[in-house]
Design goal:
Length: about 290
């Protein structure tokens, strides 16, 4: 009897624990479902505003498009001669760099959009709604990735028009575009954090000016071997350079391939760098968002 009496309560406790565990699991699944649904609604809001203001997309594409025209045709022959290749091969070298450059310039749009929402009280209004706290930021990130896909589509078409081609098949090309979108996702969360950190679009523009050194001190327009020796390690370990080198490898644009460690492992590094940036700036953005509400 003692044994039976001792076992019965244990079974009851075990059954209750299983029930609680199952209930907790269902609550987590349902909560994640609602969080995703809320984020999709927020992303749709941002995309709707973007469709109504196409000037933002045009403004984002102006610098890469002008870079295609200037470096592809005006300076392309001189740049190619300095690298020891003709102008057509230099365009193959150039286009992956411009793809990544466009992803980097998206930081400015994200930062300014978040700052504007904070200044207009949009963030405060969203706080009053029965929605997941992370939905506003995740929705912003989803919308930016969709907008980046549009930007990339335009630039790919433009690259094809000027003679750029991928040479390793469609799946390798899609993998390269996927790495570019992964980089854009990481830069989006940097922009979200900066947008929550600074006050006013003017301050956001000052932070955006820091993107230019990041973009230029990389393997975007010239290879690392053509920069001063003291600057070469900075160029090689720039997160932008890893994605550019990986895309050139996946597109088959193997012009002026470097022999550095990063160049030899460009594809893994093109995954590692964005993942590290996301691991840093996603928690920072969520922390800043919660702190701003106090």
């Amino acid at each position: 009897m003692r044994t039976l009496e001792g076992r019965a309560p244990a079974r009851v406790v075990e059954a209750v624990e299983v029930e609680r565990s199952g209930s907790w699991t269902r609550e987590v699944v349902v909560g994640l479902g609602w969080a995703v649904a809320d984020a999709v609604v927020v992303a749709r809001r941002y995309l709707t505003h973007l469709v109504r203001r196409p000037g933002e997309i045009v403004g984002t594409l102006m610098i890469p498009v002008m870079a295609v025209l200037l470096f592809g045709f005006v300076f392309g022959e001189a740049m190619g001669a300095a690298m020891g290749v003709d102008s057509v091969d230099y365009r193959d070298f150039l286009m992956p760099g411009l793809f990544a450059l466009t992803m980097a310039f998206g930081i400015g749009n994200t930062t300014i959009a978040v700052v504007t929402d904070v200044g207009r009280g949009v963030v405060d209004r969203f706080r009053t709604l029965p929605m997941a706290p992370s939905a506003l930021l995740v929705g912003r990130g989803m919308a930016d990735v969709v907008a980046a896909l549009v930007d990339l589509s335009v630039l790919v078409v433009m690259g094809l028009l000027i003679g750029w081609r991928w040479h390793l098949g469609p799946w390798a090309a899609l993998a390269g575009l996927g790495l570019l979108l992964l980089l854009r996702m990481a830069f989006t969360w940097i922009g979200i954090f900066l947008g929550l950190l600074v006050r006013g679009p003017e301050a956001a523009m000052k932070f955006f000016s820091l993107v230019f050194p990041l973009a230029m001190v990389a393997e975007t327009f010239v290879p690392a071997r053509m920069v001063p020796g003291w600057l070469a390690p900075v160029v090689e370990w720039n997160p932008l350079s890893a994605t550019v080198l990986a895309c050139r490898e996946l597109f088959g644009n193997s012009v002026a391939v470097g022999d550095s460690w990063v160049a030899q492992y460009a594809i893994p590094m093109a995954v590692v760098w964005p993942v590290v940036l996301l691991a840093v700036f996603v928690p920072l953005s969520l922390w800043r968002y919660r702190r701003a509400g106090r």
